[in-house]
Amino acid sequence: MKILVPVKRVIDYNVRVRVKADGSGVDLANVKMAMNPFDEIAVEEALRLREAGIASEVVALSAGTAACQETLRTAMALGADRAILVETEAELQPLAVARLLHAIVAREAPQLVILGKQAIDDDANQTGQMLAALLGWPQATFASKLLVANGRATVTREIDGGVETLEMPLPAVVTTDLRLNEPRYATLPNIMKAKKKPLEVFKPADLAVDVAPRLQTLGVAEPPPRHAGIRVADVAELVAKLKNEAKVI
Amino acid sequence: MPILVIAEHDNAGLKAATLPAVTAAARIGAHSGAEIHVLVAGSACTGAAQAAAAIAGVAKVLVADAPHYAEQTAENEAALAVQLAQGDGAYTHILAAATTHGRNMLPRVAALCDVAQISDIVAVESPDIFVRPIYAGNALATVKSTDVLKVITVRTTAFDAAGQGGAAAVEAIAPGPDLGLSRLVGRELTVSARPELAAARVIVAGGRGLASSENYHRLLEPLADRLGAALGASRAAVDAGFVPNDCQVGQTGKIVAPQLYIAIGISGAIQHLAGMRDSQVIVAINRDAEAPIFQVADYGLVGDLFKLVPELTEALG
């Protein structure tokens, strides 16, 4: 069984985001970039399935600029067998990415696609669900536990107020939540080995996919600032402030 | 042309998250004069349908009652919404709350209708222009949809709950097919006498500073009891196993905006602040005077939480 793991190159989660002065977007110049943390969890889960003998091959995929090769090398350093880049300078929105993934799934015929539930840049939380819909496949989003056996997936998902477990036939799309696993680190020998693993490059046109954005960004602004208030000396002062000033208790 | 809101419910009744989604629909309708319809897809869901009909501002409730909608699995519910979107009297907008239910199901609807989804809107500027947070709420993007149909999830804390007193017509519609793609094996909901995190007036939240699950419960539960508060946690506390993930407040957990948010032993990572920065009043208790949480707190108390939290609980008695 082959597993496809789409990964996204995003701003590193530790970086403080700054809005550009002209309000056209977020400043990404000279900012540290990394693999979307939820996608790291997706890579890890796919590797564990391969190590358990359930999957035979893990293919990482990214869509974006040539710089995404770095992210794919990271995925291969973690253990992915090979990688595919759909290279474009165009702005890619979730529907466009889902359509690119749809085209790659048609070529690669994986039984399972595992990807992060959301990317920490646009926070859209759409791509996995959209891909599943385009393919007509079942989906299990926000997964915290994944079991694969006899051509079926049993997935425990995080929902508001608790968890639920779904069962579905493969092929299927699974999106990862935080508690699914704890991703490994790449070792130096594996980073060296990853440089020699195959990385195939396509253009959206090779896949006959129109990636034109459907949403136009009119402007990006800082949220209204929240100012630090005051320090209180002790519990008595805190309670008095909450009662008499804020009037919330 | 009307606007469709997809209800979130448990068949017997409506989930509170549906109400702010109706308010967002009403904001769009205020520009275009469109009617609001609510879709209730369920099984033996008369209770939920009646609750939807009582929401002020709703013109019509569409009820698809069939066993394969009992658990509202994404595949079947999305297919039904797509049928409605592409049917006669088609819709200009389809909305759902940005809860795990709406986030799970609605992107399928958008993809099958070949349109973008606009996730997690916090404001309606016009029928095709919306504001949504990106980068964990560190930036707000104003986006314009160029699609004929707008598919939208609504951040529930950004819109007031729609009122009661409506008397919408309830119309049964033909259910769509059972796609049989996924099957619910079981659901374990946390049973708690406390208010739900997303709807609570007061939230007491704990972080890594509490050091153990035992401390979390021993110190925070009595305080939450005194305040009638919901219990929340930072991602660090969840990762450390103090509490289950459904308590997590932050970019990757729940987005909350209570009247009072008390952050205890929480340093204030960007991803946590993203989930609670819209709270009306924020209190932070932390022994590190330099912790970033103090930059957003209205009232900061620097000190040992193991001493201060019991004191606070006592003082509120």
Automatic annotation (TrEMBL), chain A:
<protein>
    <recommendedName>
        <fullName>Electron transfer flavoprotein subunit beta</fullName>
    </recommendedName>
</protein>
<dbReference type="Pfam" id="PF01012">
    <property type="entry name" value="ETF"/>
</dbReference>
<keyword id="KW-0813">Transport</keyword>
<dbReference type="GO" id="GO:0009055">
    <property type="term" value="F:electron transfer activity"/>
</dbReference>
<dbReference type="InterPro" id="IPR012255">
    <property type="entry name" value="ETF_b"/>
</dbReference>
<dbReference type="InterPro" id="IPR033948">
    <property type="entry name" value="ETF_beta_N"/>
</dbReference>
<comment type="subunit">
    <text>Heterodimer of an alpha and a beta subunit.</text>
</comment>
<dbReference type="InterPro" id="IPR014730">
    <property type="entry name" value="ETF_a/b_N"/>
</dbReference>
<dbReference type="GO" id="GO:0046395">
    <property type="term" value="P:carboxylic acid catabolic process"/>
</dbReference>
<comment type="similarity">
    <text>Belongs to the ETF beta-subunit/FixA family.</text>
</comment>
<feature type="domain" description="Electron transfer flavoprotein alpha/beta-subunit N-terminal">
    <location>
        <begin position="23"/>
        <end position="211"/>
    </location>
</feature>
<keyword id="KW-0249">Electron transport</keyword>
<dbReference type="InterPro" id="IPR000049">
    <property type="entry name" value="ET-Flavoprotein_bsu_CS"/>
</dbReference>
<dbReference type="InterPro" id="IPR014729">
    <property type="entry name" value="Rossmann-like_a/b/a_fold"/>
</dbReference>
<comment type="function">
    <text>The electron transfer flavoprotein serves as a specific electron acceptor for other dehydrogenases. It transfers the electrons to the main respiratory chain via ETF-ubiquinone oxidoreductase (ETF dehydrogenase).</text>
</comment>
UniProtKB/TrEMBL annotation, chain B:
<dbReference type="InterPro" id="IPR033947">
    <property type="entry name" value="ETF_alpha_N"/>
</dbReference>
<dbReference type="Pfam" id="PF01012">
    <property type="entry name" value="ETF"/>
</dbReference>
<dbReference type="GO" id="GO:0009055">
    <property type="term" value="F:electron transfer activity"/>
</dbReference>
<dbReference type="Pfam" id="PF00766">
    <property type="entry name" value="ETF_alpha"/>
</dbReference>
<feature type="binding site">
    <location>
        <begin position="265"/>
        <end position="272"/>
    </location>
    <ligand>
        <name>FAD</name>
    </ligand>
</feature>
<feature type="binding site">
    <location>
        <begin position="248"/>
        <end position="252"/>
    </location>
    <ligand>
        <name>FAD</name>
    </ligand>
</feature>
<dbReference type="InterPro" id="IPR018206">
    <property type="entry name" value="ETF_asu_C_CS"/>
</dbReference>
<dbReference type="InterPro" id="IPR001308">
    <property type="entry name" value="ETF_a/FixB"/>
</dbReference>
<feature type="domain" description="Electron transfer flavoprotein alpha/beta-subunit N-terminal">
    <location>
        <begin position="3"/>
        <end position="188"/>
    </location>
</feature>
<comment type="function">
    <text>The electron transfer flavoprotein serves as a specific electron acceptor for other dehydrogenases. It transfers the electrons to the main respiratory chain via ETF-ubiquinone oxidoreductase (ETF dehydrogenase).</text>
</comment>
<feature type="binding site">
    <location>
        <begin position="234"/>
        <end position="235"/>
    </location>
    <ligand>
        <name>FAD</name>
    </ligand>
</feature>
<comment type="similarity">
    <text>Belongs to the ETF alpha-subunit/FixB family.</text>
</comment>
<dbReference type="InterPro" id="IPR014730">
    <property type="entry name" value="ETF_a/b_N"/>
</dbReference>
<dbReference type="InterPro" id="IPR014729">
    <property type="entry name" value="Rossmann-like_a/b/a_fold"/>
</dbReference>
<keyword id="KW-0274">FAD</keyword>
<keyword id="KW-0813">Transport</keyword>
<dbReference type="GO" id="GO:0033539">
    <property type="term" value="P:fatty acid beta-oxidation using acyl-CoA dehydrogenase"/>
</dbReference>
<feature type="binding site">
    <location>
        <position position="208"/>
    </location>
    <ligand>
        <name>FAD</name>
    </ligand>
</feature>
<keyword id="KW-0249">Electron transport</keyword>
<protein>
    <recommendedName>
        <fullName>Electron transfer flavoprotein subunit alpha</fullName>
    </recommendedName>
</protein>
<keyword id="KW-0285">Flavoprotein</keyword>
<dbReference type="GO" id="GO:0050660">
    <property type="term" value="F:flavin adenine dinucleotide binding"/>
</dbReference>
